[in-house]
Amino acid sequence: MNCNSHEHNKKYTRRDFLTKTSLGMGAVTLGSLLNTNSMLGNYNTDSLNPNLRLPHFAPKAKRVIYLFQSGAPSQLDIFDYKPTLVNLTGKELPSSVRGDQRLTGMTAGQATFPMVGSVFNFKQHGQSGAWMSDLMPYTSKIVDDLCFIKSMHTSEINHDPAVTFLQSGSNLPGRPSIGSWVSYGLGTDNKNLPEFVVLVTKNKSGQPLYARSWGNGFLPSKHQGVQFRSGKDAVLYLENPPGVNHESRKEQLEYLKKLEDINYRDIGDPEILSKISQYEMAFRMQTSVPEVMDISSEPEYIFDLYGEDSKNPGTFAANCLLARKLAEKDVKFIQLYHQGWDQHGSLNKDIKVQCKETDQATAALIQDLKQRGLLEDTLVIWGGEFGRTAYTQGRISDPGYGRDHHPKCFTIFMAGAGIKKGITIGATDEFGYNIAERPVHIHDFQATLLHLLGVDHEKMTYKHQGRRYRLTDVHGNVVNEILS
What is the rounded distance in angstroms from the CA atom of residue 408 to the CA atom of residue 412? Predict the structure, then answer.
């Protein structure tokens, strides 16, 4: 008896039936995701998860640009004006204020905790009267377009778990990043570019960045962030090797897809379909990526707007300009990383450098999006993983003093789609140490981000190892006060 006859006459068990039919449903589901011209358009329809019919409601934002400031900027020196702290500089932080707050190993051994106010000048700006220091002269001019949240807080006191928590909703590695969740839930509006693009400022030292910050975790690998680099090869291994032209590469991919289709029918591993999708995306990106990375056609006034660094590929300013170009191409989630904010020492010197590198380009990006009509449906976020302490790290008499990690309160700002303009919510106490008004947890922030994209954070889940996971774990409430 030949193999085909044996297979035909085999008595199928219930397990065989369920396996075969479930794989067929999975193929149909993936087909609808990959076919942007289907009746369902860009809607995600996971047949194994009846709650995943996205978007759940009309979105305010079509895309997100997240300007992540790695290392934790000192909110007390940029945004959170505390004249009391200035007047009490050198005095011991009251134990009643510090309470039982866990300290890092860098200051736990200090005998004293002298308070230190900012040495920088603060003023109110715009009609909103938002307070900002003179470290951010360009951003100060656009405060009426911004929404400040001064009462952010987190449970993590060290960088890696704090970044992991902010980016994935868990302090343990292995969960999908925000951008991957957005890619999984909402798909793409541009089939020639990835849904999730990452840009990292070049030549910056500081706390290390790990690729899992933009990783897909347990989601299919097609949803991981794709890092665009400065230099000749914006995406590693994207170009054809010597001797391989565009047509031969296309033919190779067609045959590879046929083989992988057979492989999928035999094995049923959804990751095979992800690989096919990634191969096809890489092929399309050979044309689309060089086009979007080319800034030679930008007019001179745009370079003047973003600053002289914008002509230098890989700088924060150049990446902000690329972020605008990617937004124009309808990339769904664009994340910029800028390192160097971890100022345990030489605070007053080093924070000037950080602000100079980021201030003008940040303001320019928001202005540029606004003048093109893109800010109406683009959400822009600026902030780090936690804040800095009201007391010094090191001797206050040492001009090289710094501030330690502070998870109990920090500041971020948002602008654009669905966000109220010119407002500040939340407040800290007179010492800038504890939250006095309207706490906003990391999961609240994540829930609000998804809400602006039309996603109910409680309903977008993914089943993994027998449990349904979501970005906000089992917490999170939308911050309705900031929604327009």
Answer: 14
